[in-house]
Amino acid sequence: MSIKNRAFLKWAGGKFKLVDALNRHLPQGKRLIEPFVGAGSVFLNTNYDSYLLCDINRDLIELYNIVKHRPEEYIKAAKAMFVDKMNDKEAYYDVRKKFNASRDPFKRSVYFLYLNRHGFNGLCRYNRKGEFNVPFGSYKKPYFPEKEILAFAEKAQKAEFLCISYEQAFEMASGGDVIYCDPPYAPLSTTASFTTYVGAGFSLDDQALLARYSRHIALEKGIPVLISNHDIPLTRELYHGARFEAIKVQRNISQKGSGRVKVDELMALYDETYHTEALS
């Protein structure tokens, strides 16, 4: 088995542990489209001819484009921030303030990696004003992912990164494409905390709309779509007409140790075996 490539960002809900299972479920094609690229673990561990990688987080997409085109310059600037004196609460909040005030894409990209590696749990979260608001993480020695950035930059030559919605990403799909959707996961209960890292969140209406887009593009254009989510009755109902497979995975849902539960991942595939009655 080949060595898996790690993303250079820490990311809540990242797919690194699932890439082997995903590779078994992803159909063959020329181009992989990811409307929710996140940290890019699936991109880094698949072998399509080309990629269309999308996200509504502008900071993320601008970072990826800078790493793609200016990796050495980026590494030099970002590495300078991974020194002992910067692993400090006061320094962190100063950088966070500068990040929120800056409109320069390169500076924001450098700050973004610093905040990602020094912030609490690698979270990426913004307030209603669009300001990054993750608290300091208090890590002993945050890791600077130089080799992971270089590996990403090399693979990125096969990719196009766009800051667009998942609906727009679907509209760009054509014959020979495969779509993999890793949306913010559906809530385990109506009381579960359920927000995404940009804007007002990904509602149940959004979940249902994504399923509808997936069914239609598989039926009308013959483009296969694989979606991952929690394996719960809600998602099985949402993804009616798809082929299902549950994957055992350890995922800590609650931060309280006593509240941690194991929830299986559901792989829902819409492909050429999809039938019209699923649209009813």
UniProtKB/TrEMBL annotation:
<keyword id="KW-0949">S-adenosyl-L-methionine</keyword>
<dbReference type="GO" id="GO:0032259">
    <property type="term" value="P:methylation"/>
</dbReference>
<comment type="similarity">
    <text>Belongs to the N(4)/N(6)-methyltransferase family.</text>
</comment>
<dbReference type="InterPro" id="IPR023095">
    <property type="entry name" value="Ade_MeTrfase_dom_2"/>
</dbReference>
<dbReference type="InterPro" id="IPR012327">
    <property type="entry name" value="MeTrfase_D12"/>
</dbReference>
<dbReference type="InterPro" id="IPR029063">
    <property type="entry name" value="SAM-dependent_MTases_sf"/>
</dbReference>
<dbReference type="GO" id="GO:0009007">
    <property type="term" value="F:site-specific DNA-methyltransferase (adenine-specific) activity"/>
</dbReference>
<dbReference type="InterPro" id="IPR002052">
    <property type="entry name" value="DNA_methylase_N6_adenine_CS"/>
</dbReference>
<protein>
    <recommendedName>
        <fullName>Site-specific DNA-methyltransferase (adenine-specific)</fullName>
        <ecNumber>2.1.1.72</ecNumber>
    </recommendedName>
</protein>
<dbReference type="InterPro" id="IPR012263">
    <property type="entry name" value="M_m6A_EcoRV"/>
</dbReference>
<dbReference type="Pfam" id="PF02086">
    <property type="entry name" value="MethyltransfD12"/>
</dbReference>
<keyword id="KW-0489">Methyltransferase</keyword>
<keyword id="KW-0808">Transferase</keyword>
